[in-house]
Design a protein that fits this description.
Helices cover 88% and strands 0% of the residues. By secondary structure, the chain is mainly alpha-helical. The protein has 2 domains: 64 residues; 39 residues. One of its GO terms (cellular component) is nucleus. Its main location: nucleus.
Length: 118
Amino acid sequence: MDMDSTVVKVWFKNQRAKGRRFKCDTQQKQVHQQSLQDQEQHQQICKLQLQELHQFQFQQTLKSDVSRLLYSNTCHHLEFNTSSSLKSNSSSYINSKISLHLYSNICCHLKPNTSHQF
C-alpha cells in the first residue's frame, strides 16, 4: 500500500509540476506577446512624435525664413542700395527712392539738422 500511495503522490507531484510549467510557459508567451504589442505601440508613438517634431521644425524654419526675408528687405531699403540692377527696374528704384525719402524724413525728425532730398 505504501508503494501505491508513493506512486500516487509522485504522479500528483508530477502533474502539479507540469501544471506550473505550463502556466509559466503560457505567462511567458503572454508577456512576450504583450511586450511585442508594447514595442509596436511605442514605435507608433515615436513615429507620431517624430512627425510632429518635423512639422514643428518646418514651421520654425518658415518663421525664421520669413523673419530673415523681412529683415533683409528692411535692410535693403534702409541701406538704399541703388545699384545698376536696381536702377534698371524702375519701380524698385522708385520704391527705393520713396523709402529713402521716408527714411530721411524720419531722420530729420530724429535729428533736426539732417537735410534730405527727393
